[in-house]
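Target protein
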Amino acid sequence: MADPLKADRLLQVLRAEGVRVVEVGDWRTRNRNHKGSWGPVNGSLVHHTVTRGTDSTVRIVRDGYPDLPGPLCHGMIAKNGQVHLVGWGRTNHAGGGDPRVLDQVIAESYSSSPTSPTRGNANGVDGNAHFYGWECENLGDGKDPWPGAQYDAIVRVQAALCRAHKWSAKSVIGHREWSADKVDPRGIDMPRLRADVAERLKHPASWNPGTGPTEEDDMPEYVNIGLANPYTLKPNAWDSIEFTQEWADTAAGHAAGGSVFVRGAARFTGSISLRFDGLPVGDVVQVRMSEYEGDEYKADHPVHEIVGTPGGAFGVVALTKRIGTGRSMRVRLLNQSEQLIAVSSAVLTALVWKES
């Protein structure tokens, strides 16, 4: 819990974190303070805009709609990674949310498994008083990609605020985690985002990771694939996930219905969200990346375990690696129970940097 940053201090911490800031008009004094308090602030909320085009999106989040006056956030993070500051003070971005979520964010107390706070309640606490708000330019349809420059800027903005307030990454949540009737930011894995923010906070604000995008890097390619339908996983045999749904594959690593999600020479970072039905309580599904040359197995990477619980079996596994020329990467599963289970959901999202 903290007093909101002053406008000049915000600019200072954003620029120190490497954020490319665009100041829009009278943003320092544009707010909804006449409608209620702003502060103490307890965290930062990430949204998507359901819009296309940076200029028009900036106008919308600054001016709002007839039934929802602007500003609708503090800053809009564009596809190219620029952050357009449109307001400072109370803004119409968060609405009502679950008081339990606010308590968890204040205490930074929600557990590492699951890695998200309790899902929100739209009829609860006034979030506009308690959160910084960041709209991100995206259609929110699950197909519109999140370019590497934009994702990197989202991470940097959140890290800048956490660093300034001495918060951990658990002070950053998505709108869908605050309010049960929201889905944004669709296409961003919030536990993965918090992990990336946490990684930045381990380093000085000026840090540029060697495996992530910088202004000198080529733009990464976006991959978002999953399952069209659940399938059955037999016991006691490693099995590659065949991705039968493709929302985006600008890196051209995934053949229709195939198991490969990236091909070398390339480096990549992302995650896969998995859910299993029918896994007995206490039993385990192991998850690992495996390298191939064509259809020939070559190497395995470290194992992650997802454990059956009374509420189901689900988890998010990080995918980060570099693969060489001629190699490809798959995700493999090992059902260690003694019965058939269902792989009910597998959603993989990754950014891929092709190497020459």
